[in-house]
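Retro notes - structure team

What went well: the batch runner handled both jobs without manual restarts.
What didn't: labels got mixed up in the shared folder, which is why I'm recording both outputs here explicitly, each with its sequence directly above its tokens.

Job 1
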Amino acid sequence: MRIGILGIGRIGAFHAETLSGLDAVDSLVVADPFADAARAAAERFGAEVADSPEAVLAAGVDGVVVAAATDAHPELILAAVEAGVPVFCEKPVARTMAEGVEVLKAVAGRDVPVQIGYNRRFDAGFVAARAAVSGGELGRLHTVRSTTLDPAPPPAAYIAASGGIFRDCSVHDFDIIRWVTGREVSEVYAVGGNRGADFIREAGDADTTGAILTLDDGTIAVVSNSRHNARGYDVRMEIHGFDDSIAVGLEDKLPLRSVEPGTTFPAGTPHDFFMDRFTAAYRAELTAFTEVVAGSRTSPCTIEDALEAGWIAEACTLSLHEHRPVTVAEVRRG
């Protein structure tokens, strides 16, 4: 099949490399506002260059991957759907929830699949955890712990436009908690601090946060995030039930150092980047998209799914700013 890529920056180039290695993909067509980036990608991956998103959609593509800046996501999703082309879009759907809801309304009833990029749903550990929960191996759940710790903050310009740590980083934890447990979040309480980079504080954001989520069956989820984890990129989940407990991410590249005498775990070189930690998941995610394009499966992460994680992020952001518990229903009402 022929796949278009809109936006060929860091993640777009990574997706181009992944797609070019999939048996189902015969050719790529790329476009980027920076013509040099598009030409460099074309040379590297044997892709064709188009001078605009419209040209990509008119180039006979079977599906399109949106890896452009967040502000462009709504327009590009809608353009692809209007053209009848299945679309994969990196999260978020839009910069604001109001815009995301408008995108959802605009594509409702259209027979064109949209897949949003939440790659943890394709990581082998998280897939196994979901299977264990849905299969009843853990019994009733009582506690979930989800962690995302970045090795260093992104650039100041990124932070200023990110919408805050809950919308940019923690939202991955919120999505995977919903997906693994099969439950919805009813209420949150969030705290945060900033003891690191001044530009994060100046942007009105926190660099380290904690959130307590109450799920709709009473399960408690604890989410921990930070922009500062000098040992590496740390993504983990613990799921505790009345019959058993399991963990995702406890492997030799875990960026954590044990001080227990005689303990040699973890013994590997720590993960230091999200692309390192989730290389296989990204490949599985885009493989799934080719199956969506081929019509052999439905979207594994819909706009609705992405918006649900977004509402949790909105509730946590409000909770942090107002120092109080916030229900998801409250932020939905606006």
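Job 2
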Amino acid sequence: MTAQVPHILVVGGGYVGMYTAYGLRKAARRGKIRVTVVDPRSVMTYQPFLPEAAAGSVEPRHVVVPLRKTLKGCRVVTGRVTSIDHAHKVAKVMPEEGPDYELAYDQIVVALGSIARTLPIPGLAEEATGFKNVEEAIALRNKVLDRLDVAASQPDPVLRKAALTFVFVGGGYAGVEAFAELEDMARYATRYYDNIQADDMRWVLVEATNRILPEVGPDLGQYTVDVLRKRNMDIKLETRLESCEKGHVILSDGEEFDADTIVWTAGVKANPQLARTDFPLDEKGRVKCRADLRIEGLDDAWSAGDNAAVPDLTSETGAYCAPNAQHAVRQANRLAANILRVVDGQQPQDYKHKYVGSVASLGLHKGVAQLYGVKVKGWPAWFLHRTYHVSRVPTFNRKARVILDWTLALFFRREVTSLGSLQMPNEEFRRATNS
């Protein structure tokens, strides 16, 4: 690569990767730099809208941002970076098909993000599903509605009870929002079944600590527990999932029952692929960064988001920035600006952002929020949740489509059709060929 046109390699197309490349795209279109984004997926998923997509409030295609369409001027490679040798400024790329190859760069942005943090629980890999991408969200929606169909057509009370039991493990944002939104959808759907009542379903949230939604504070966390319990939802605090082999759930409090639907949302961890780099990592496997988002000891390597340990300059205790979308988006904007400053021969600026607060949806017209120390509950919190996140979702196109989805929902009833057969599109054809 020539010094006049530096090549910026962005590893990962999630929050940090997409927003960083988005901030660099104009300079790339002018020929000032070259930008390459490598990610196994050709879209960025706006994860805060996954619960609403699962509940049918937002069209699934509207919660993903196509990278090639959005990052005009940047090259997008669909593949995985399997290793990084920064000493020689080379990354090894494994494309969807074909042999691996090496990609040289001048500066690199490490934005591999996080993966689900799982535990060696018997049956977890076979029986549970995660909740990190749109495919999982839609599969879960289809599964919930399909289980209602099964229960309505099943005379066996044991099988019927298992079909109507839904277990979510993890009391953070992803778990609580998905838990509440899907229960709200399923409760609405029961009006179309003559032999299923809302109280026939059992929704169980399992949390190992003594509170849920720690980001909104203990008061709103307890309020959320109370609200969900009033909806006849079972909230089990200080409880762990011990086993779920063949759908038989065993909890640490001694309770055992069968459940057809088990969802794991118990936190995330830094992408383990970082171990295949020569960057400095902390005890949690995150890349060590300085406040200006450069990787420790390096001037031409950057990182941010879930996979980075970035000092929180607003903290007096030496803490690191929390792994959430609020920091990731702002860090990415600062990171892109800093790269351009370095290209222009200027010094990068430190990232500093005081945490604004948190918002969470608990189903249609229900929510909790804590913004700038102000606590909000119910419909106003739900409205703040939607307002904040539609302002954060990238591109005007996606904002408009999401708002249109919500507007249409004001005039038409909620859609509760299961498209579970989409997950097995050839099943009917196979039956026909075997008959």
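One thing worth noting from job 2: The mean pLDDT is 90.
We'll revisit the folder naming next retro.
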